[in-house]
Structures are given as C-alpha cells and as structure tokens.
Design brief:
Distance between the termini: 39 Å
Order of helices and strands: EEHEEEH
Radius of gyration: 16 Å
Helix content: 10-25%
Number of strands: 5
Number of helices: 2
Oligomer: single chain
Strand content: 35-45%
Largest sheet: 5 strands, antiparallel
Shape: globular
Number of domains: 1
Low-confidence stretches: 47-51
Mean pLDDT: 80
C-alpha cells in the first residue's frame, strides 16, 4: 500500500437529493440540512461529523423538503497529513447545474488554514 503524502488535499462530492426544512419550537427557528447520498461506506464514515447527519433535537420537526436541480452536489474535503488516519472534514459548498464552481482545492486550502467558526 502506498504511503500517504503529507498535506494531501482530498475532495469528494455527494449527490444532494434536496434540503430538509426543520422547525424548532424551542428556539423558534427554521434550519435546513441537505439530504445526500453516500456512494460508499467510506464516505458515510467521513461525513459523520457534518451537521446533516445529526438527529433532530427535542422540539424539532421536519416541515418539508426543498427540491434542488439535478444534479446538485455537496462538496467536502480534508487535508490528510502523514501519519494521520483521519483529518478534519470541511464542508466547502455546493455545485449546481449551470453555475460555475470555484477551484475546490483552493477553497479547501483556505478553509484548512483559517477555518471559519461560529463559536
């Protein structure tokens, strides 16, 4: 098995089927989470950290599904370092048909250098 390269960027895309609209009665807010497909077990494992796979909180209900144009993709990535089995996964954005996409490797590098945090 070849040795992992240091600081190797990895980008993957998952097909988005729609966005679930979730209402919170406790916080009086609405949020959306993407409904995506995972083409293999490895993708499902890597995306475990992303908010779309979290369970509904107390007082939350699914109000509906927003349709997206086909094919729409969620783009995620990570930068693996030598000796690391897993690295932080970043949600980079979405690709929509007919819309020009950014250079995802550059977006990943910027995100990994200075991740935006809401905390």
């Amino acid at each position: 098995m070849p040795e992992k390269a240091e600081n190797k960027p990895v980008i993957w895309k998952e097909l988005v089927l729609g966005f679930a609209v979730i209402e919170s009665c406790i916080y009086h807010s609405i949020r959306t989470i993407p409904v995506v497909t995972a083409s293999n077990t490895q993708e499902a494992l890597f995306t475990d950290n992303l908010t779309r796979l979290t369970k509904l909180e107390e007082g939350e209900t699914v109000k509906g599904i927003l349709q997206v144009p086909f094919p729409t993709y969620e783009v995620t990535g990570s930068v693996t370092s030598k000796g690391e089995e897993f690295s932080e996964v970043f949600l980079l954005g979405y690709e929509y048909p007919g819309v020009r996409s950014p250079d995802w490797i550059q977006v990943l590098k910027k995100e990994a250098e200075n991740p935006r945090r809401c905390q």
